[in-house]
C-alpha cells in the first residue's frame, strides 16, 4: 500500500483560506486563486479537459515524451526519487516509469483524496517502486519530509502548470524547487506551453462540449462550501480568451445579471451584470524566455524537446 501522509498537508488554515478568498472577492477586480478549481469534481473535470480535442497541451506533451523518451531518461538517470508536483491521477508519471525506473515515487497534490486513490492503484502495477503520497499546497511552500532522500531528487512538473503562476511567482516557485535540491544529481523535468495563434488558444480554453465551462463554474460550488456562500452557478457564464498583451489565457466567471453574493460572517459583494471574477491565468512562453527564467532560478544544463509545430516544450534542467 502506498504510504499516505495526510499529516503533511501544509495548506493554510480554514480561517486564512476564508480571509484570502473574501479579500479576492472584495477586490476592485474580483479574483480567486486557480488552486480552488481543484476540489474532487474539479480534478475529475480537469482530467476530462485533458481528453478534449481542443485542449492540445496534454496530447502534445505526451507525444514529446514518447518521441524523446530515451533522451529524457538519459538526462534523468535510473534510480531517482521522482517527485511529481500536482500529480493528479498520476498518469503522466506512470507512463514514464518503465523508461525512468525511479527508486521512489512521491506524488504531491493539493487534492489528497484524489491523488491517494491514484497512488494506491499505481502501487499494485509497480510494486518495485516505493510510493508516497503527500497532500500539500506546494504553490505556497515546498516542504518535503526530512526523511526523503536528498540524493538524485528529480522534480516533475508537467502540463504547463507553471503557466498558472504569474511570471514573477513562477520564478520564485522555480527557486523554491531549486532550493529543495541540496543533494547531487538532482534536476527538474517540466512542461511549458508556448505562445501560438490566438484562435488555437481561445478554443483550448472554451471547448465546444463546455467541459472547461463546467470546470470553471464548479469553482462556485467549491466556494460555497469553503465560505458558506450562496453563489448560484446558473447566474454566471464561463469566459476565456487569450490576452496577447500579457501572453496569457485568462479565465473569468461573468455575472449574467446584477446580483449580490453573501458569505459567512456577514461578507457580501454586489456584482453588476457583465462584471467578472478572474479565476485563472495560463501564461505562455517563448523557448528562450523560459530557459532564461530557469537560469535565473539557479538551474543549468537546460535541454529542451518540442513538437514539430512548436506548440509545447519539455525541459530538463539540472541543479547548477
Ligand atoms: C493545470 N493548468 C496547466 C491548466 C492550464 O492549461 O492552464 C488548467 C486549465 N484551465 C483550463 N483548462 C485547463
UniProtKB/TrEMBL annotation:
Q: Which domain of life is it from?
A: Bacteria
**Protein name as it appears in the record:** L-histidine N(Alpha)-methyltransferase
State the EC number(s).
Answer: 2.1.1.44
Task: List the Pfam families hit by this protein, alphabetically.
Answer: Methyltransf_33 (PF10017)
Keyword list (alphabetical) reads: Methyltransferase, Transferase
Give the UniProt record's GO annotations in the biological process aspect.
methylation
Q: Which organism is it from?
A: Collimonas rhizosphaerae
Read off the InterPro entries from this record: EgtD, EgtD_Methyltrsf_superfamily, MeTrfase_dom, MeTrfase_EgtD-like, SAM-dependent_MTases_sf
Domain Histidine-specific methyltransferase SAM-dependent as annotated: residue spans: 18-318
Q: Does the keyword Thylakoid apply?
A: no
Please verify whether the record's keywords include Ribosomal protein.
Answer: no
Q: Name one GO molecular function term.
A: L-histidine N(alpha)-methyltransferase activity
